[in-house]
């Protein structure tokens, strides 16, 4: 979703801003822009489309001398992705970039129109710029404080005032960091934007205002100076390129064995490092997108083997429901970024009710990591492709270990999953190395427009992620269906050559799913079986190594990830940045 980078220092900001925007591309966006400032003027250049288009425009422009600037990638919320709506927005004395959504923007806009203001864009951001300009009294901090008391909603703001050679920033419910260089400083919506220039940064907290000079930074909240901790990131670089792969998506899938080993290591050495879930009567798993589908796998395992009641809910629904908690409820939040707005809201709701919250999260400094009561970190490293792959596998991995530990502690299972888990990265690598088999399947389906994924129980949970991955990156319409439910309507869509993926790994229910496969086969479907044992008689088949039920999904989902990838490639899609999607969804 939208990205911010800002710079103040001894150099011209152009290079830093363009590089920062490129490093933020992975978040998803549809237009971009920069503002450069010197004592006399502010120069703004914007463009619809990719950052390279903006870069060409910048290279073809005569740039002003400058040592301070802000830049933005915009993922349209208020108003279409046009150049006018792209950021930065300048109103009088003020130029800003903004991430988030101002919820009372319409109301404020009307009031301002009644006062005679004319708006150029459809954005909520121009409303904020107008207010900052209206209340500007020569004291930027006072002005920002005044305006953030008026606006409601979420915002990370980078702000320039014409008469100050200073960079200002503030935030609420949308992340923003302040990067610390040698003779220069930065603001950024995440560390990726500035990683080529510094690894030192501070996290800006809600309501704090940063006043940033080239060689000093003041942080103020409610009129008082705030002491900040300086953090060092261990991410080395975003442009460690694709390591010879065509896309980040496939590179990240291929990294799965290594990051799985790293994530599992401490827990396989000592399972008790994981939280004890036996004390909870009920677990709510709340997340968005693939993280929610990882939760469905976790719930399936916890219910089946650990006799634990689990509800899984998408965060955007959960946060508005009347959730009934008791003192033995645990809420598990799953999030790669730790910044997904709906998941944050769900966590805060549970926190306010005094319920324990456990975050399964990748970014250690994220809001969800910091505000949850317990954390288990996955070690995915940076994930750049918008469609998650390796982070999803690690989320499933942690949930599998949690389910096993809970079942074991409750004396409901006596198998040794830990020993098998040690061999999992090797088996996973074998699965990933069969790229030709996946390409063959991709070639048989890439020209189709509708595809089904069917399965029962945990195989249905796997189907949901397989279907999501395919539609996200290839734009083929696909649906996951409970195999037994197909005949209650959906089977009417099946005709000759209609692809149906059947996921069959659960021994207990295998024969039932095969009966459903027969039903679609007899109506002409092209049946593709993904299983852990040979099942003869269908059009195409992938057999993955059989392993205990806790770990089996980790050997199946990567097959579906790679098929989705190959299909998207055959269809010439923008695989790493699918249209309309954002990596980190920081607005509702
Ligand atoms: C976006 C991404 C998905 C991701 C979801 C949740 O929709 O495109 O890949 O699963 O957000 O993100 P999170 O960072 O909370 O895991």
Please report the number of helical segments: 18
How many angstroms separate the termini? Answer: 11 Å
Shape: globular
How much β-strand is present in the residues? 15-25%
Structural class: alpha/beta
The radius of gyration over CA amounts to 25 Å
Give the low-confidence spans: none
| Ligand identities | 6-O-phosphono-alpha-D-glucopyranose
Total strand count, please?
Answer: 25
pLDDT averaged residue by residue: 94
Q: How do the strands line up in the largest sheet?
A: 3-2-4-1-10-9-11-15
The biggest beta sheet, please? Answer: 8 strands, antiparallel
Helix content: 25-40%
Short description:
The chain is α/β, with parallel strands linked by helices.
Please describe the topology of this protein.
Elements lengths: L2 E6 L5 H11 L6 E7 L4 E7 L2 H9 L8 E7 L14 E3 L2 E6 L5 H10 L9 H12 L4 H11 L4 E7 L5 E6 L4 E4 L4 E4 L11 E4 L5 E4 L4 E5 L2 E2 L5 E2 L15 H7 L1 H14 L12 E6 L1 H18 L2 E6 H4 L10 E7 L5 H12 L3 E6 L5 H5 L2 E4 L12 H20 L7 H6 L1 H9 L2 H11 L4 E6 L2 H17 L2 E6 L16 E6 L5 H12 L4 E6 L8 E4 L9 H18 L18
Parallel strand pairs: 16-17, 16-18, 18-19, 19-20, 21-22, 21-23, 23-24, 24-25
Antiparallel strand pairs: 1-4, 1-10, 2-3, 2-4, 5-6, 6-7, 7-8, 8-12, 9-10, 9-11, 11-15, 12-13, 13-14
Helix pairs in contact: 1-2, 3-4, 4-5, 7-12, 7-14, 8-12, 8-16, 14-18, 15-18, 16-18
The chain binds 6-O-phosphono-alpha-D-glucopyranose.
